[in-house]
Amino acid sequence: MLLVGCCLLIIIGFVHSYLGEKFILIRLFRRDNLPKLLGSDWFTKRVLRFAWHLTTIAWWGFAAILYFLSHPSDSTHAEILVTISIVFAISGIVSLLFSHGKHLSWLFFFGISASSILGAMYS
Q1: What UniProt keywords apply to this chain's record, in alphabetical order (predicted)?
Q2: From residue 69, how far is each of 20, 23, 24, 90 by CA, in Å?
Q3: Residue 53 pLDDT more than 90?
Q4: From CA 19, how far away is CA 80, in angstroms rounded?
Q5: What is the pTM of this model?
Q6: pLDDT, tens digit, for every residue of 91-106?
Q7: Alpha carbon of 117 to those of 12, 81, 109, 114: distances in Å?
Q8: Disulfide: which of 1, 105, 108, 113 matches 89 by Cβ 3.0-4.6 Å?
Q9: In the prediction, which pLDDT does 39 show?
Q10: pLDDT tens-digit profile of 41-50?
Q11: CA-CA distance, 29 to 45, in Å (whole number)?
């Protein structure tokens, strides 16, 4: 059953990102009344886009965790922590690149990633 959930999370991630871009974000960004953060709507659009796609990344991380839980081993704890570390490292990179460092979530994402990988290494 966990593998079914794993597969569904992978599929819904692709669907969420693709359809979200095509039918929500693109149409939303055509509007001229978005809030102007930091002087323009550029930052608003970038934050909305990366936040939208971070959801997909998180879902894929959950899919990996479900996979590891469906095949438990002596290293399941470490595999889950490494998965969390990867998800938050990718989230940090996406946040950093999309916002050019202006959205400070990347600092926290990298901190979570580092603490998770250290937890995997020392547990």
Answers
A1: Membrane, Transmembrane, Transmembrane helix
A2: 29, 34, 34, 22
A3: yes
A4: 29
A5: 0.92
A6: 999 999 999 999 999 9
A7: 27, 6, 12, 5
A8: 113
A9: 85
A10: 999 999 999 9
A11: 7
**Which tokens go with 85?**
């570390």
* Phi–psi pair at 37, nearest 5 degrees: -95, 135
Domain boundaries, the chain: 1-122
Cα(56)–Cα(65) distance, integer angstroms: 14
pLDDT at 37: 87
Q: C-alpha distances in angstroms, 30 versus 26, 45, 53, 80, 87?
A: 7, 10, 19, 40, 30
